[in-house]
Write a structure and sequence with these properties.
Four copies of one chain form a homotetramer. By secondary structure, chain A is mostly helical. Chain A contains five helices and no strands. Helix content of chain A is 67%, strand content 0%. In chain A, helix 2 packs antiparallel against helix 5. Chains B and D meet through helix 2 and helix 3 of B and helix 3 of D.
C-alpha cells in the first residue's frame, strides 16, 4: 500500500511533508480537494434525505435495500470527507470502497428514480460522488 | 422540549407530517436547509484542517486547546448536519449546543488568527456556523 | 450553562485541570466513565441491529418510525461516547438530549417487543442507556 | 471484491439472506461479532483518551503524529463498528484498512509507552483491535 497516493492531496500531514522543495502552503493545498468534499457532502445529504423519504413511501418494503444502502453510503462518505479535510495519509485508502458503495447505492436508487424524486436525486448525487472518488484514485495510480 | 421547533425544517419526517394542509413536497423543503448544511460542512472542513495544521506548528503546545476544540466542533457539526439532512425531529435540539461549541472554537482560533491562516479561516467558518445555528434556533422560538 | 458539570468525569481535559489539588491520574479517572461508555456502545449496536432487522420484517411500514429513531439514537450515542472517552468539557451537555432520544427509541421499540426479539433487546439497551445518561446528569446537578 | 466474505457475520442483511437453508435467527448471529465490536469500542475509547492526554503532555510536539493517528484510528474503528453491528455487506471491506490504521497507531504509541501510561494502554488496545480485524479477514479468505 503506497503511503502517499496523490489522489487525495495531503494538505499538511504525512511523512515527507517538511522535505518538499516547493511546498505549497497548507491553505493553498486545502482547496484542491474542495470538489471532492463538495461531492461527498452532497451525497451524504442526498442519502440521508432519501432514507427518510423512503420510510414515508406507501410501499416501504420495496425500499428496504435502498434504505440500507443509503445508511452505508452516508456513513462511508462522511468518514472519507473527514479524512480528506484533515489531509490524512489514509484518506486515499478509503476512496475505492467509497466509490463502490456510492455505485451500489446509485444502482439501487436508479431502479426507483422514475417514480420517486428523492431516489432520482440521490442516484445522481451518488453517481457524481462515485466519479469524484474514482478521479481521486486515478490521480493516485 | 417542543417536539417540532421550526428552526430546522423537517422535510419529510416528524409527527403531523401527513396532516399539513399545504404540504410542500419533501424535495422542495429539502433545499430550505441548504444554507445551514453548507455552513456546517464548511465548519467541519475548516476544523479538521486547522487541527492538522496546528499539529505542524513549531509551538504545538500553544495550540493544544485549539486542537481539542477543533475535534469537538467538527464532531458536533457532523452530527447536526446528518440530523438536519434527514429531517430528524431531534435536529433542532442540537442547534444550541452546536452554536456553543462553534463559538468556543471561534473564540480560541481568533487568538491565533493574526499569525496563522488556518486559525483565521477556521474562526471565520466557526463564526458563520454559529450564526447559522442561532438563525435556526430563532426561527424555532 | 455550567462549564464543568460533574456528570461526566473529565479525565484529562477542561479548564482548571492543572489546578486541582488531589488530581487523580488521567488513567485512573479514565475508568470512571466505563459504565456509561458500555451502556452507550451497547445501545449503538442494538439500534444498528434493530434497524437492519426491521427492514427485513414482512411489514416494514409498521416499523418505519422505529427505524428512524434507531438511526438518531445510534448517532447521538456515538457522539456522546466519543466526547465522554476524550473527556471533553462538552460531554455533559449531550447527556440530556442523548437520554431523550434513548427514551423515544425505547418507547417505540417496546410497542413491538412482544413480537420481535430485536425490538425487545433494543428497548432494553435504550432504557439502560437512558438511565446511564440520567445518572450522569444527576451527578452534575 | 467478494460480495459476502465471511469475516464479518452478516446477521440479517445481504443478498442471499432469504435463501440460506439453515438460517440462524438474526438474534443468534448478532452475538457472533461481539468480540470484534468489543475490540473496536475499546480501541475507540483508548485513542480518544490518548489524544486528549497527549495534548496535556509537556512536550506536545513530540506527540503530534500520535495525536494524528489517534484521530484516524478512532474514526475508522467507529465506522467499522457501525457497519459490523448493522450486518452490512460492506463491513468486511473495511477490516483491512481498519487493521492497517490500528497497526500504525499501535506502532507509534509503543514508542512512547515506556514513559506514558496512556500511550501504553492505547498501543495495547490498538494491537488487540488489529488482531480482531485480521481474524475477521482470515475467516473471509
Amino acid at each position: 500500500m503506497p503511503a502517499h497516493p496523490a489522489g487525495v492531496q495531503n494538505c499538511v500531514a504525512g511523512p515527507g511533508y517538511k522535505h518538499r522543495t516547493h511546498n505549497p502552503s497548507p491553505t493553498t493545498m486545502h482547496h484542491q480537494n474542495q470538489p471532492l468534499l463538495d461531492a461527498l457532502n452532497a451525497c451524504i445529504a442526498a442519502c440521508e434525505h432519501c432514507a427518510t423519504a423512503c420510510l414515508l413511501e406507501p410501499d416501504v418494503k420495496m425500499m428496504a435495500r435502498c434504505i440500507s444502502l443509503d445508511r452505508d453510503c452516508a456513513d462511508i462518505c462522511a468518514l472519507t470527507a473527514r479524512f480528506t479535510a484533515r489531509g490524512s495519509e489514509h484518506a486515499p485508502h478509503l476512496l475505492k470502497e467509497c466509490a463502490e458503495i456510492c455505485k451500489a447505492c446509485a444502482d439501487e436508487c436508479e431502479k426507483h428514480g422514475a417514480h420517486m424524486q428523492h431516489c432520482k436525486e440521490c442516484a445522481e448525487a451518488c453517481r457524481r460522488c462515485e466519479q469524484a472518488c474514482r478521479a481521486g484514485l486515478s490521480k493516485a495510480a
